[in-house]
Design goal:
This protein is of the alpha/beta class. It has five helices and seven strands, in the order E-H-E-E-H-E-H-E-H-E-H-E. Helix content is 36%, strand content 18%. Keywords: Membrane, Transmembrane, Transmembrane helix.
Length: 185
């Protein structure tokens, strides 16, 4: 019986919607819920709504906060953002980070998101069009791409557009928590 369970800790790898439900249940029954997952929405870190939820992994707000601190440290005021969510309907990792980043930047009068684009097509020509637009508005670009193919195509487009120089800063986010390499195994 769930109510009579003596377990004081639940580990979860649930998807976002399931985590919201689990967080509400954990709050109701007043037991701790540990979210062990890839990047998840900062909504679950609302202590009023989910006081018993904890997470050893990063929520989207942590990554957005880290980026804004980096921007402040180096006085980067104009930032472009490009992202691609390979599984946006299942686990919207990149879009969660970008949403929180935009909220934080909107609260800071010294920062402007000069360009924001979610790409749905990860071809070389799509990335070239995005890069041409970025050239006019920013030298600092935050990139969150959830597929290896998208990263490769972007890097090729950056080189072909002559933007692989010290003039540009590319900040690649890794939202899947597996690093940037794929190792045989």
């Amino acid at each position: 019986d769930f109510e009579k369970s003596t377990d004081s800790l639940r580990l979860s790898e649930d998807l976002f919607s399931a985590a919201l439900i689990a967080g509400s249940i954990a709050n109701y029954f007043d037991f701790p819920l540990v979210i062990w997952a890839t990047t998840f929405s900062s909504v679950l870190m609302n202590l009023n709504e989910y006081p018993t939820v904890m997470a050893p992994t990063w929520s989207s707000i942590n990554q957005a906060r880290t980026l804004t601190r980096l921007f402040e440290r180096y006085n980067w005021r104009e930032v472009a953002v490009v992202y691609y969510s390979a599984r946006s309907d299942v686990i919207p990792r990149c879009s969660l980070i970008v949403e929180d980043l935009e909220l934080m930047m909107n609260d800071n009068p010294n920062m402007t998101m000069t360009y924001r684009r979610q790409v749905s097509n990860i071809t070389n020509s799509t990335f070239k069009n995005v890069l041409r637009a970025i050239k006019d508005v920013s030298r600092i670009t935050v990139i969150c791409l959830e597929s290896v193919e998208a990263r490769r195509n972007l890097m090729v487009a950056i080189a072909e557009e002559g933007m692989d120089t010290n003039e540009y800063m590319w900040l690649l986010l890794e939202a899947r928590k597996i690093g940037f390499g794929v190792f045989p195994g």
